[in-house]
Design brief:
Strand content of chain B: 15-25%
Mean pLDDT of chain A: 90
CATH class of chain A: Alpha Beta
Largest sheet of chain B: 6 strands, mixed
Radius of gyration of chain A: 20 Å
Number of domains of chain A: 1
Order of helices and strands of chain B: EEEHEEHEHHHEHEHEEHHHH
Mean pLDDT of chain B: 92
Structural class of chain A: alpha/beta
Distance between the termini of chain B: 59 Å
CATH topology of the largest domain in chain B: Rossmann fold
Helix content of chain A: 25-40%
Radius of gyration of chain B: 21 Å
Number of domains of chain B: 3
Number of strands of chain B: 10
Distance between the termini of chain A: 57 Å
Helix content of chain B: 40-55%
Strand order of the largest sheet of chain B: 6-7-8-3-9-10
Largest sheet of chain A: 6 strands, mixed
Oligomer: heterodimer
Low-confidence stretches of chain B: none
Order of helices and strands of chain A: EEEHEEHEHHHEHEHEEHHHH
Strand order of the largest sheet of chain A: 6-7-8-3-9-10
Number of helices of chain A: 11
CATH architecture of chain A: 3-Layer(aba) Sandwich
Largest interface: A-B, 41 and 39 residues
Structural class of chain B: alpha/beta
CATH topology of chain A: Rossmann fold
CATH class of the largest domain in chain B: Alpha Beta
CATH superfamily of the largest domain in chain B: P-loop containing nucleotide triphosphate hydrolases
CATH architecture of the largest domain in chain B: 3-Layer(aba) Sandwich
């Protein structure tokens, strides 16, 4: 067992149950292998229905594989005795914050997770304040969650997971319901958690410009991993992305289109600033 | 010809309480028949409050809303009537599907309009076609469909009323890039074929720039900018100061202009950026190093 690996998917297959017992649904996840290293920032990209949310649920024993294994710090998620320990290690934040806020006051909501883990009262107080401060929500601790903006609600949901002090946070399309401002806020805090606190971040998204920030990108299609690598490697695979129902980040697509017309722009242009630099290095004023 | 007008509309939530917020502040705006308008503004700017006024879900506390020149809030009947003529499709409309078949869900609007069965059938099938809902899905339960399919069924439900104005709040939210392109191309196709007026509320500057003809920016309950796509998106600094994004392509071109490249600033789509940047390159040539 490699100590550096926090979550390991080994030949995982998973299928959802059909309402009709006669019908067996196709595999949602097919022979999936992935090692997530401690402190890594991974993005999982895929079209709607590609199986990426299933990965989130498999990662902390909300569901368990039909065959194969998911190991969290070496503990098999299929073993019920490990469940509590696994949930203390991997926290999952879902897409819609309205579905995961449970209390009528922000600080009570953040305390809900650690309370359920049996953390002593005094320590809960500390953890809640810490998490709310880290996410810039401390001044809202007495507010009613439903009166917050989408970005603020999502930050409260993340604070709730942080207060559980999990080593790894899996976020399933955490910005899908947010406006550009809210998206920027959430992404900024994810990077902070990763860089400053050393937490492992698994970001499930279909925003290419968010995936660009990750150390490593996994691309899913129909339950299978079809590409894997650094953002530069993955976004060089235009065909694979297109077949996966995804697109290049806008700046990368512009660069690629111009290269096809004969301009010799360098590889690895992913962001607008990359493009501006590359173009101004190449073209006369 | 004006189809929809807001005349000095003011609306305040929680008036008289400590939570009082002015969502719309003396807004006047008119929409021409057949226009494709994009409404943008950050969360809380008042844009959702505005579109709910357009089909009488909210009544102005001051001012009036006119449809084809008539006050839509004159009576309960005119309010009911305008809901069929101005179709409003909310964000995540698939959460509002409730019938046991797709067909029944799409027919809900026409039924409420008191149409006979033949008419209902025609309206359902034509809307399903516009929204890209395949015939074989009509007898399925909406809950067995994929996310993108559900979204299209919900949109068909609004189109089935054959409204003169179609208003959509974030029609592509939560969809992957391919799903998003599908939704926008079906909306433009619907508009071309039916000649309807279309209003889209969106956070995505790229989508608004690519599809709308006119852009209205709402900020703090007021109309902050209003004009064609060129005139609004060429004011990048103003958009940024209103807390909005600018399209990535606009950012790139304005970044190059700041570096001394003499480019046309009115660029907001990849196609246009490609054209402008390539012809500049052809003219000036490669740097020799």
């Amino acid at each position: 067992m490699n100590d550096d690996i926090i979550i390991s998917f080994k030949n995982v297959n998973y299928r959802y149950e059909s309402d009709d017992e006669e019908i067996s649904l196709p595999l949602a996840i097919k022979n999936f292998n992935l090692d997530i290293h401690k402190g890594e920032f991974i993005a999982i990209l895929g079209h709607n229905g590609s199986g990426k949310s299933t990965i989130a649920k498999l990662s902390n024993a909300i569901i368990v594989p039909e065959s194969g294994h998911v190991l969290v710090n070496g503990m098999d998620t299929a073993d019920e005795d490990n469940e509590l320990k696994i949930r203390q290690t991997v926290g999952v934040v879902f897409q819609n914050p309205d579905n995961q806020l449970v209390a009528t006051v922000v600080e009570e909501d953040v305390a809900f997770g650690p309370e359920n883990l049996g953390v002593p009262q005094k320590e809960i107080r500390q953890r809640v304040d810490e998490a709310l401060k880290a996410l810039g929500m401390y001044e809202y601790r007495f507010s009613e969650p439903h009166k917050l903006s989408g970005g603020q609600k999502q930050r409260v949901a993340i604070a709730g997971i942080m207060a559980m002090k999990t080593e790894c946070i899996v976020l399933d399309e955490p910005t899908a319901m947010l406006d550009p401002q809210g998206r920027r806020e959430v992404v900024k805090y994810m990077q902070k958690l990763n860089k400053e606190l050393g937490l492992t971040i698994v970001l499930i998204t279909h925003y290419m410009d968010e995936a660009v920030l990750a150390d490593r990108i996994i691309v899913m299609t129909n339950g299978e991993k079809v590409a894997e690598g650094t953002p530069k490697q993955v976004f060089a695979e235009e065909k694979i992305l297109e077949n996966a129902g995804l697109s290049l980040p806008d700046s990368a697509r512009l660069a690629s289109d111009l290269r096809k017309k004969g301009m010799k722009l360098p590889d690895g242009i992913l962001t607008p600033d990359d493009f501006i630099n590359a173009y101004s290095n190449y073209v006369n004023k | 010809m004006k189809i929809l007008e807001a005349e000095n509309v003011t609306y305040t939530y929680g008036a008289g309480t400590p939570f009082e917020t002015k969502a719309l502040d003396n807004v006047s705006l008119s929409i021409e028949k057949g226009e494709f308008v994009g409404i943008i503004g950050h969360t809380g700017s008042g844009k959702s409050t505005l579109i709910q006024h357009f089909n009488a879900l909210l009544e102005p506390q001051k001012g009036r809303i006119l449809f084809n020149g008539n006050d839509i809030n004159k009576s309960k009947d005119t309010q009911r009537d305008v809901r069929f003529k101005v179709g409003l499709c909310f964000q995540y409309p698939e959460y509002q599907l409730f019938e046991d078949t797709v067909y029944k869900d799409i027919s809900f609007g026409p039924k409420n309009m008191g149409k006979n069965n033949d008419e209902i059938d025609r309206m359902v099938r034509s809307a399903a076609r516009y929204a890209g809902v395949k015939d074989e899905l009509l007898n399925k339960s909406p809950f067995d469909l994929s996310g993108g399919e559900k979204r299209r069924v919900a949109i068909a439900g609004v189109m089935a009323m054959e409204p003169e104005v179609l208003i959509m709040d974030e029609p592509a939210a939560g969809l992957d890039p391919r799903g998003k392109r599908n939704i926008f191309s079906l909306i433009s196709n619907y508009r071309k074929k039916t000649g309807s007026t279309v209003i889209i509320v969106s956070h995505s500057m790229e989508d608004v720039a690519a599809y709308a003809e006119r852009v209205v920016v709402i900020d703090h309950g007021k109309v902050a900018m209003d004009g064609d796509v060129d005139s609004v998106f060429s004011q990048a600094d103003k958009l940024l100061s209103l807390g909005l994004n600018i399209p990535q392509m606009t950012y790139i071109v304005s970044g190059l202009i700041k570096k001394g490249y003499k480019l046309n600033p009115a660029v907001y789509t990849i196609e246009k950026a490609e054209e402008v940047l390539f012809s500049y390159f052809k003219e000036k040539g490669e740097k020799k190093c």
